[in-house]
Amino acid sequence: MNIVTIDDGLTLQTSNPDQLTQAYREGQTALERGEDTDNVLKTHVVRGDFASAAGYLHGLAADARKRLPQHPDDCPCRRCVHDREALMRSIYRTWREGVAA
Description:
Elements: E1 2-5, E2 11-14, H1 17-33, H2 37-46, H3 50-67, H4 78-100
Antiparallel strand pairs: 1-2
Helix pairs in contact: 1-3, 2-3
């Protein structure tokens, strides 16, 4: 088994690193090419080429993440609220440590 790190920092373990990487790149550009993603994925699975299927799915997911709109600064979603609170705690902790020194 080989360990492959793909573009977005994801690390995967596979016996076919070249196939996984190639399929990942194909998945990233599939929507731009207007590809029938269901049939491509089905073809990989039917052939038993699970490394390519996994790479293709990860590529599709990476492309979808890039297409998501950016959240506004005052976004009320749970993740954004959590991130803002963590940032404020970090700033306050740094300020407290600076005042104490």
